[in-house]
Amino acid sequence: MSLMTGEQYIESIRAMKMNVYMFGKKVECPVDDPILRPSLNSVRMTYDLAQLPEYEDLMTAVSPYTGKRVNRFTHIHQSAADLVKKVKMQRLLGQKTAACFQRCVGMDAFNAVFSTTYETDKKYGTNYHENFKKFMMYVQDNDLTVDGAMTDPKGDRSKAPHQQADPDLFLHVVERRADGIVVRGAKAHQTGVLNSHEVIVMPTQSMKPEDKDYAVSFAVPMDTPGITMIIGRQSCDTRKLENTEMDVGNSEFGGVEALTIFDNVFVPNDRIFLNGEAEFAGMMVERFAGYHRQSYGGCKVGVGDVLIGAAAVAADYNGAAKASHVKDKLIEMTHLNETLYACGIACSAEGHPTESGNYIIDLLLANVCKQNVTRFPYEIVRLAEDIAGGLMVTAPSEADFRSPELGPVIDKYLRGVDSVSTENRLRILRLIENLALGTAAVGYRTESMHGAGSPQAQRIMIARQGNLEHKKALAKALAHIKE
Ligand code: SF4
Ligand code: FE
User: Fold this and answer.
1) Fewer C-beta within 10 Å: the chain N or C terminus?
2) DSSP reduced 3-state for 94
3) CA distance linking residue 302 with residue 97, whole number of Å
4) Do residues 439 and 235 touch, judged by C-beta distance below 8 A?
5) Residues with Cβ < 8 Å from 263, sequence gap 6 or more?
6) Nearest partner of 113 among 261, 230, 285, 229, judged by Cα
7) Which atom of ligand 1 is nearest to the CA of 94?
């Protein structure tokens, strides 16, 4: 089996016995939980779209390793054209879900680990690249979803991993055995971990030799003993328990995050991709972050498309679509959104091969892309709220709207243009609320800020990649300066 259907994917996750907690209780069946199910549906879309002939070119690729057609989310990029298709695929999925569809993290980890293991082996004679290739082909053959886990809790930010009061604040190797390693620690903010078959763990930052036990990368199935997930709270999450799909705004799709604990988890030797070669931790982090910063030039743009569309519909329903300032705000939103897309496409088109042969984005442009993502979605949301009007946060609940006594009153007083039902007006405002302030705001706003690295992480990379000396030389040459 090379491509799973959406239904097969859901059932394959259902069959896994994962250790998940939420609101102080163990979740016995995460797949059927009303708060968690929308996030599973978002990942499902990566399977459903891959089944459709019209999306075959974007959603799938032929693996040079297995010779079979695989989901692009499990593909090792073979060209700059592959990198461009990746961004287009992510925009499409953002448009279809208006949520984080989660599977990109594994794809980005795949490509970062592929090239880093190759270079680590070259220097140290280790066997990590073969380990990784074996794992990658297993994932491709079975069309698995893989989470990429990078961010450690990090404790006191002024201290290195080995200096922390609690050594587990960075995930580390606690025991080396003949058949593998035992690791302990946690990974924070893991979107998609709950809906993944496997997780690739990577170091969270560059490491010095003293931190070699923390320079570790590996893959394990998500139902491995010792792994526990604690689901994060989201604004308005319990609306999903109220049987009021209208109030949820986007009832079908979403994303959830989990604090993921690794309590003495055993990793067999053939699943290890880095184990103490501290100098390569930085390379893995930089490459993964670069790929994921490229990703945001696709996924956030697709969600932005939905938000711009929703704002335009709200303007129609309010009778404000012809106002010149409203038109101009929609133009500004489009300009900002397409600027993000331009960055995503540019860093892809300028991609180049690594020593291992897979393609990597232009790192400077990928970091510029993500730096813009830390800003523009906030402005797009601001403009959407401006156009939507205050009703997006003051409208009565669906229960009131459905009540025989109150419903007619709400219907009468909250109508916009006469030709549009009050229900439709409220529905579009709830979608905007969901993206701006509700569960989806985690993915569209705060994740835009901190996902794939907080703004300062990109500024450090921009400083490193910006080649200021070259720019100074250009200026001196034109000014005829001889030093
Ligand atoms: Fe994919 Fe975007 Fe979610 Fe990252 S934030 S996993 S790129 S959808
Ligand atoms: Fe993300």
Assistant:
1) C
2) helix
3) 9
4) yes
5) 184, 226, 227, 228
6) 285
7) 8
C-beta 100 within 6 A of ligand 1: yes
Beta-carbon contacts of residue 283 (< 8 Å; ≥ 6 apart): 116, 119
Widest CA span of the chain, in angstroms?
85
- C-alpha to C-alpha distance for 102 and 133, rounded to whole angstroms: 22
Q: Ligand 1 in contact with 451 (CB < 6 A)?
A: yes
Spatial distance between the Cα atoms of 266 and 437, rounded to a whole number of angstroms: 40
Q: Are 229 and 237 in contact (CB under 8 A)?
A: no
pLDDT at 75: 98
Q: Is 104 in the pocket of ligand 1 (CB under 6 A)?
A: yes
Report the amino acid identity of residue 152: D
In order of 19, 39, 50, 123, 441, the CA distances from 300 in angstroms are 30, 16, 20, 38, 11
Three-state DSSP class for residue 191: strand
Query: From atom 8 of ligand 1, which residue's Cα is the shortest distance away?
Result: 100
pTM of the model: 0.98
CA distance 413 to 95: 32
Q: Please name the amino acid found at residue 414.
A: L
Structure token digits, residue 210: 């003293």
Angle at Cα 112 formed by Cα 93 and Cα 72, nearest 5°?
Answer: 35
Q: Percentages helix, strand, coil for the chain, rounded to the nearest 5?
A: 55, 15, 30
What 8-state DSSP symbol labels residue 101?
Answer: -
Distance (Å, whole) CA 85 – CA 71: 12
Distance set, CA 233 to CA 251, 438, 441 (Å)? 17, 11, 12
119 pLDDT above the threshold of 80? yes
